[in-house]
Amino acid sequence: LTSLQSSSRLQVPGARSAEYFTMRSKSKSSLFFLSKTVNIDNFTSVGLRQSVILETRPTGVASPFIFPRSKFSLSSFPVSEQPPHRFVRLHQWNRNIPRRQSVNHCLHSSKGHRRLHSFSKLTLVRSNEKLDSEQTSTPIDQKKGRRSLNSEAHCILNLRLGSISKENCEKAKKIISIVSKWENAYGAELAETLLERLYKEQTLGKNSNAIIDAKFYDLCIEAWNGSGVDAATIVSHVAGLRKRMEERYAILSASTHANPDNSNRKTLIHSKSISWGDEVDSATISQGAQYNFQDSRFKCAEDFEKRSLHSDAHFLIHRVPVGSMKNDNIQKARSILSSISRWNNKKGALMAEALLERLHRECIKGKNPNAFVDSEMYNICINAWAKSDINGNEIVAKAESLVNRMETRYARGRENSIPRTRLARPDRITYNSLINAYSLSNEDSSAKVDKILEKMNALADSAAINKSDRDYESYIRPDEISYNSVLNYYASRKNEHWSAQRAEDLLLEMSEISQRQQEQHSKGNPPPVTMSTTTLNIVLNAWGNSGGGIRAAQRAEALLHMMIRLFNKGHENIQPNALSFSIVINAYSHVDSTDASSAVDKAMELLDVMEGFPLPNNEGINSCYNAVANVVAKSCLHNAGDKVQELMVRMRNMDTLPDNFIIASCIEAYVSAADEDSRRRGKDFLFRMIDDPSSQPNSVSFNTLITAIVRDKAKDRFDEADELISMMENVGGDARPDLATYSIILGALSQMEDEDSAEKAVQYLRRMLRSYNKDGYAKVKPNSFVFNSVINMVSRCNNEWADDVIYKTLVAMENQNSQGNQFVTPDTITYNTVIGKLSKSPSKKNAMKVMRILKSMEDQAKGGISACAPDIITYTSVLNMQRIVDPRRAASIASSYIRRVMSSCEHTVIDKHGFRTVLLALAHPGNFEHAETAKQAYEWMENIGYIEAIDSRVCDLVLVAFKNSNNELSADGVISFLSDRVDKYLSGQTTTILPTVVGFSAGLGVLGKYNRVGEVATFLGKMNELSSSGIPEVKPDEGCYVSILASLSSRQQRDSALQAQRILEMSKQDLSSLTSALFNAAINACASTSGDNSNRRKALEISFNIFEQTKELRSVDSISYGMMIRACMRLVDDDGIKYKLVKSIFHLCVKNALVNDFVLKEMGHLSQKIAGKKAP
Questions:
Q1: Which residues contact 653 (CB under 8 A, 6 or more apart)?
Q2: Which residues are CB-neighbours of 949 under 8 A, at least 6 positions away?
Q3: C-alpha distances out from residue 543 to 64, 453, 536, 631, 887, Å
């Protein structure tokens, strides 16, 4: 037999020493286990009448080897290391033999016959123990190997009846519980098959270990209900399980078999009422449904729980018919709604709202008395949207929609006399949640917020005078949280002075309302609205965010002093805390530079007041010192750093240790002076903090110093910054370089123009990715900015490695995005930068990279990612490269792109340069369809008003495309295109863009090529008419006529000479002087005349006539003589006459000393004809 490779592994469970083996010929049959060899002539095959395969499996590859039909011998295992299970794998090779013939085979060994049980194409041969022993049926130990769940199930199914051990019975039950959750037909069928096998083991096998209870029937029924197959199949299987369960219970004792219970009946009835009109959402399919035969283990319990919630929610929303939802499902829906609303993402909010609407349909359309939706469920949905990961404007739209539906449904319910207790009515929490949603939006909703507050008061007043609705007053009357929500909305409006003033006015209104309600409370009314420290802190924050400078800060300070006075008078509910002081102090950090000195003094005074004020607790006291340090750092005073250090001393005196924030502020105070001495002092301070065990600076302190260093113009600033980054890595902990560190250094490098900056940027990016990917440091998680900075720098680099590095950087960026880093998202600008760089070095390698990038962009655009959609800049760079590397592909890409743009309903921006590039690609020779596409694209651009993208030069390209198409239909296209534009202009549409004489020349050349000389003459006349009307660059010139004559010579026609003579006469009318190029083109056109002898004789006469005119005008050159020789060679049949004519012309050429390579080339044809061989 063929020798096996030494790397092949014989997979024998338990035989870990069996590593490598080699099979040789039959005469030397031996089996190598490591270095041991044992002959096995006593183990032979019997009864194998067809070829079989012994399968060996090296890592990742199956290597089957075919044995002949003759008997073969195998060696036994090493005696010292006999495994408990030894097998070889046999495949049926002859596929013509029915499967049943290969199910059972016999092997003969020294221990007797062994019967092989096969449940698949793979036959398992065990030769050490008896098949019916308990040891054989025991699963493989985990240390010696793990079977897949599918393999374990089939192993149990194929054990001999009555021989299943207790351990395997328990294993079968566990497998049923697992596969029943796969939510597919395979899992349901496997669970039912295992159930039936256990029943046979109990009844026919008389095995007391196999006892089945009702739980396993329920699991099988649930497996079919969630399998996703058609309803008829589900009902059939579920009814069959129920029937078998009842029949078996009637036969067997209730103690030894399943007892049908009510839950089982409900499951059966429920399965018959399922509506399968909706397809199962792919997101609800669990991992088990994506069945893998090698690994059926589930993910972590948390993911499985979320999958189960999603699956249950989908089941309740889409599969339970309206009107048939039971009480347990209703309670389950409410529980799921509450759970998924805390997912804090869009998916959870959408599902929560869908459950809400499902319960509403169950109540209204389904007339289900147990299903009703209360205001709490609406409030949960509103808060779910407020905490989701979408933008604020979308949150407001969703919240408003829920509140409007709630109000509308309540009004309709009251009109239909539905009791209030069964209707969801907006309450205080509802409107508070809506106001909070407005705070998340950047739009001005102040009028809506005020209207909501007025509406709440109006509803409360109306309920107060209505005896039947008086309880509603306590649910709708605005409380402290309501007013705080409104105040928080005004505080969220940054840099808007009016919002802070409106917040203070509302605070005064709240105080007046509180006084009135206090008087009414003494008469038995509800307790009044009270103001708290939180309320006043919100107003202070509104002034701090108003952008009013020193005046806003002073107003906030006045409110703070008012809080202190009121607290001293006994109003303990508005006692200022550390947050109150820190808000006011921070307000002084937003002043103008002219007020910086006074702001520092005010901040210090407030700190003095805070240190002497009885705060409720010392929690947050550090924030006050940090706020003062921030004010000092931003003041840019010459001694700002020293002042911050004094603050740190005061903190220690207050038994408070300085934290990282004040350390960073101190460094910022030093470097704000923007001189070398200040930076040195800031660096020395940082080094002292590093050595101080009580303070451990974080990356913010280092980043502040690095920012100041890279802003300097010193030559060695990047070396100094790199030293600090290395120090950060050595310090470790929170001082390690983070995203801000690399963003600062890369942003500074991007402003450099030298070649080394790109290389440094690449090295920093590599260090950053190494720290994130290998070290797992989350704070260095890259974003799009760092990748785009490196890509932009490399795109400006001219080194040889730049193309490869910029492409790999883009690939790394895509990998980050595919691995779940949502902060790294390549966009169109990123892709265009890479494509633009690669297109500057046209090569097949770069072209392949560019095409991969373009395909990725197009695929993402089709998938709905508009930020990555290719634009005209993308295609311009791609086409510029492909026009050099592969012009045909360039034309195909251009055609596909412009047709897609024309058929799209969306507005696509196309500039002049991009459109010109598209037409240049479409002008590739040999394809009339591309020329027609160019014409349609130009007309489309003209019709939709893209006048800025087209001009006369772009118009010329359409005619050039027709010229290069080499198709007779192109003549009709030229006539249509030119006629349309010329006629429009002559009819008075002076804005019509006309081609230049270059475009006319290309178009008239096409007409001349296909013998449309009449149309040529017509357009020449129109060109003269346009020129006389003042249109520049349209008067026929010499190039125009040369182009027409050259096109006549490209095809052999009977009247080429006559047409050439006609064109030449027309040129004499338009041109003041005729050059040799024009005469030479005419002679060449005459030489291409075909037909009989008379036609060619006439063409020869015309040629000599034109040649004589050339001599008269003294325009004869070497090309003229060469063309005349060519005309004689083509138009004269008689060799003697031909020789004489050519000889005379050549002698004349020699006499005038005009012999050149072109003349000798034409003479070579004559020499070849005379000598019968190729001329030298």
A1: none
A2: 910, 911, 912, 914, 915, 941
A3: 81, 22, 11, 16, 65
Q: Tokens 């044995």 appear where?
A: 67
SS3 sequence of 294-354: CCCCCCCHHHHHHHHHHHHHHHHHHHCCCCCCCHHHHHHHHHHHHHHHHHCCHHHHHHHHH
The SS3 of residue 390 is coil
Q: What average pLDDT does the segment 613-635 reach?
A: 88
Q: What are phi and psi of 89, to 5 degrees?
A: -105, 125
> How far is 198 from 176, CA to CA, in rounded Å?
11
Terminal Cα-to-Cα distance of the chain (whole angstroms): 66
Whole-angstrom distance, CA of residue 730 vs CA of residue 715: 25
Runs of H (alpha helix) within 365-391: 375-386
Helix/strand/coil for 231: helix
Degrees (nearest 5) of the Cα angle 48, 53, 57?
Answer: 145
* pLDDT of 661 over the 50 cut: yes
Amino acid 1002 reads: A
Question: What digits encode the pLDDT tens for the residues 882-928?
Answer: 999 999 999 999 999 999 888 886 677 888 899 999 999 998 877 88
**pLDDT of 164:** 85
CA-CA distance, 870 to 918, in Å (whole number)?
14
CA 1110 from centre of chain: 70
C-alpha dist (Å) from residue 710 to 216, 284, 883: 70, 52, 43
Rounded Cα gap, residues 873 and 910, in angstroms = 9
Give the C-alpha separation, 598 to 659, whole Å: 26
Q: 1127-1154 pLDDT, tens per residue?
A: 998 888 888 888 889 989 999 999 989 9
Note whether 182 and 296 are within 8 A (CB): no
d(CA 116, CA 114): 6
pLDDT per residue over 22-50, tens digit each?
333 333 333 333 333 333 333 333 333 33
Alpha-carbon Rg for the chain, nearest whole angstrom, is 45
The H-or-E segment that residue 91 falls in is strand 89-92
Q: How far apart are CA 657 and CA 874, in angstroms?
A: 56
Query: pLDDT digit string (tens) for 926-941?
Result: 788 999 999 999 999 8
Write the DSSP assignment of 878-935 as a string of letters: HHHHHHHH-HHHHHHHHHHHHHHHHH-SS-----HHHHHHHHHHHT-TT-HHHHHHHH
Residue 317: Cβ within 10 Å count: 19
Helix (H, G, I), strand (E, B) or coil at 106: strand
Predicted structure pTM score? 0.64
pLDDT given for residue 526 in this prediction: 67
55: enclosing H helix or E strand: strand 52-56
Which pLDDT tens digit goes with each residue over 850-890? 999 999 999 999 888 889 999 999 999 999 999 999 999 99
CA neighbor of 661 nearest in space, from 628, 626, 631:
626
Residue with tokens 């078998």: 244
Q: What is the DSSP letter of 1089?
A: B
Beta-carbon neighbour count of residue 940 at 10 Å? 15
Sign of CA dihedral 1128, 1131, 1137, 1139: positive
| Interacting residues of 367 by C-beta distance below 8 A, sequence separation 6+ | 323
Q: How many Cα atoms are found within 13 Å in the side-chain-facing hemisphere of 856? A: 19
In order of 733, 941, 957, 1020, the CA distances from 978 in angstroms are 74, 16, 13, 12
Residue 1106 CB partners (closer than 8 Å, separation 6+): 1060, 1061, 1064, 1079, 1082, 1083, 1086
DSSP assignment string, 26-48: GGG--EEETTEEE--TTEEE-S-
Q: Point out which residues pair with 943 in neighbouring strands.
A: none
Q: CA-CA distance, 138 to 136, in Å (whole number)?
A: 6
Token pair 């890259």 is at which residue?
A: 782
d(CA 630, CA 666): 8
Question: What is the arithmetic mean of pLDDT over 1037-1057?
Answer: 85
